[in-house]
Amino acid sequence: MNKLESARLIINECDKEMIELFKKRMRAAEMVASYKKENNLPVLDLSREEAIINKNIALLNDKEFEEYYLEFFKTMLKVSKDYQTKLMEK
Asked: pLDDT tens-digit profile of 31-46?
């Protein structure tokens, strides 16, 4: 097995793990949407969003990947908010 094949195996393993974590996170987003709908709260909580971005950037603790992780994380937050909006419109 060459370096490319080895790297692709690692990526495939990561993707599989990330799929399970994505589903787990989206199920939690369902719970958040349900609570927000019951309590007449908006989907966007800017202070919470800023706090979790800052917390996760600190956990990343790697300047080389910071800008890429930030883009990845903000995209994930957008997907989560879009899903919550859809659920709350039902």
From this structure: 999 999 999 999 999 9
Q: What does the pLDDT read at residue 28?
A: 98
- The SS3 call for residue 3 is helix
Residue 79 tokens, joined: 């997907």
Burial of 26 (C-beta count, 10 Å sphere; 0-12/13-18/19+): middle
Q: What is the pLDDT of residue 10?
A: 98
Residue 33 CA to residue 43 CA, distance in Å, equals: 7
50 CB neighbour count, 10 Å cutoff: 10
Structural domains of the chain, with CATH: 3-88 (1.20.59.10)
Rounded CA separation 16/12 (Å): 6
Cβ(40)–Cβ(88) under 8 Å? no
Taking the C-alpha atoms of residue 77 and residue 84, their distance in angstroms, rounded to an integer, is 10
